[in-house]
Amino acid sequence: MSSSRIEAEPAAAAPPASIEPPDEADAEVWRRREIEPRGWIKRVLPRTMFGRSLLIVIMPLLLLQAIATWIFYDRHWAAISWRLSSGVVGDVALVIETLDHIGSEAAVTRLLARAEGLTDIHYTLARDARLPPPAPPGGTRLESQLRQAMLGRISEPWRITGLDNPDGLRIEVQLKRGVLTASVPWNLLYSYTTYMFVMWMVGSSLVLLAIATVFLRNQVKSLRRLAAAADNFGKGRYVPFFKVEGAIEIRRAAVAFMQMRDRIQRQIRQRTQMLAGVSHDLRTPLTRMKLALEILGDDPVVEELKSDVAEMEHMVLGYLDFARGEGSEVPVETDLSLLLEDVAATMRREGASLTLSAPPECLMTVRPNAVRRCLVNLVANARRHAAHVWITAAAGAEGLDILVDDDGPGIAPADRERVFRAFVRLDASRNPSTGGVGLGLTIARDVARGHGGDIRLETSPYGGLRARLHLPH
Ligand SMILES: Nc1ncnc2c1ncn2[C@@H]1O[C@H](COP(=O)(O)OP(=O)(O)OP(=O)(O)O)[C@@H](O)[C@H]1O
Ligand SMILES: [Mg+2]
User: What does the mean pLDDT of the chain come to?
Assistant: First the structure.
């Protein structure tokens, strides 16, 4: 059941224009226009609400941490490491200074051992050795700080090596009695609280991210459920009562949706019952008129009246059929390929010349009797106007397209929307015995739209009319 029934009525009952896409607009184009973001920024940003909410939570956090880290490194960390480097170089300088005033070898050994015990710097003295030329300075911050500290404190030639050594670096100084090597472990030069700070920041961000993810996922879940319910309702499927949860706005939207669903269903039911009632009640006076005409004899005027009454009866019966509709039918998972084969077989038995090409299996949730009726109406039209009918089904990402082609005269583009209106027939003769009442396409489109799809009329490559029935997944 869909609004197409309402559309067949006078304008007073027509829905506001904003609810439905204009008839000439392709439904898919309409849908894409709504879903696909425009502008490159929107295309780069996450598209789901979950992704966006997470971004809103995470972006300021990351920004704040980046600023904090930058300030920390640039000020605090630089100051601390400068102080550490100066301390180490000072210790080494003190040992060198003391060595200058010692004569005996035993005293030198004792001093170096004592200095190591007190400062954790390991000293070795290579007697009579020469210091190789200094290596070009590396680019690390630590090295440049060390060099800076050395410049003011050690006047002898020196060089720094072992910067990639895992245990620590070496400071080699050329003394008069040989080369003094001071092995400095890394922990004397680095402040490990720096890493603690960074780890703490990263860790706390991860914890926050995890908490935000859990909460956001719950919020988005109910929104997704609501979107799925709305989608299913639009496709004429059964929408059960779902648990309303999440933020108050989402709850309100869900409750409003449920109420809307109930109102629409009630309205459709009422309208259907009313139309069926009117059509049914019209049959009684029609039958009385027919009886009265029989009594009047064979006058040409009476014959004309008889023909008119017969046409009216035909129309009323057709309308009754239409109004009864398939409202009570429940959507079930159906193999549309089987259904198509069934329709084709029935039509062939009735003498139709027909070619069917469909995928081996095509499962969809539809009202099978309604879809059958829709297909039968399309094929019956093609049969009535053409010699051969081609039915082609093609499943795509968006759903299933069933094409009914014929090699008849077709319909002029200007008339292609008009024929969907109730009781519109293009045949010159209004004699009901030569054709239908003009409800076939109206009913077919009603069924298609009731499933969230549509029917469009196009020019067939076989020369006649192509009716394209689209059913979304
Ligand atoms: N395949 C076709 N080729 C040419 N004209 C068509 C074709 N299908 C429909 N038409 C035209 O569109 C009009 C409306 O079709 P519709 O199916 O609604 O009514 P009908 O076939 O006349 O009657 P009913 O289907 O109710 O028995 C038809 O009267 C016919 O003029
Ligand atoms: Mg028809």
Answer: 84
The answer to whether the CB of 406 is under 6 A from ligand 1 is: yes
Each residue's pLDDT tens digit, 348-360 = 999 999 999 999 9
How large is the average pLDDT for residues 89-112?
90
Spacing, Cα 444 to ligand 2 middle (Å): 9
Domain definitions of the chain by residue range = 67-191, 228-324, 330-473
Q: Closest-lying ligand to the alpha carbon of 422?
A: 1
Convert the pLDDT of each residue in 389-418 to its tens digit: 999 999 988 899 999 999 999 999 999 999
Does the domain at 67-191 match CATH 3.40.50.300? Answer given as no
Cα 128 from Cα 282, distance rounded (Å): 127
Instruction: Please name the fold of domain 228-324.
Output: Helix Hairpins (1.10.287)
Tell me, using a 6 A CB cutoff, whether residue 377 lines ligand 1.
yes
Reading phi first (left if > 0) and then psi (alpha if -120 to 50, else beta), residue 452 is in left
| Residues 189 and 89: beta-carbon distance below 8 Å | no
Give the Cα separation of 377 and 373 in Å (integer).
Answer: 6
pLDDT at residue 43, rounded to an integer: 76
425 lines ligand 1 (CB under 6 A): yes
The CB of 432 under 6 Å from ligand 1? The reply is no
**pLDDT at residue 466, rounded to an integer:** 96
**For the CA of 439, the nearest ligand:** 1
Domains 228-324 and 330-473 share a fold: no
Confidence category of residue 458, pLDDT binned at 50, 70, 90: very high
The three-class DSSP label of residue 124 is: strand
- Find the ligand nearest to 314 CA: 1
From 376, 379, 439, 441, the mutation candidate for ligand 1 (largest count of ligand atoms within 8 A of CB) is 441
- Listing DSSP states for 192-249 in one string gives THHHHHHHHHHHHHHHHHHHHHHHHHHHHHHHHHHHHHHHHHHTT---------SSHH
Ligand 1 in reach of 443 Cβ (< 6 A): no
Give me the architecture of the 330-473 domain, per CATH: 2-Layer Sandwich (3.30)
274-304 pLDDT per residue, tens:
888 888 888 889 999 989 988 888 888 888 8
pTM to 2 decimals?
A: 0.63
Q: How far is the CA of 438 from the centre of ligand 1 (A)?
A: 6
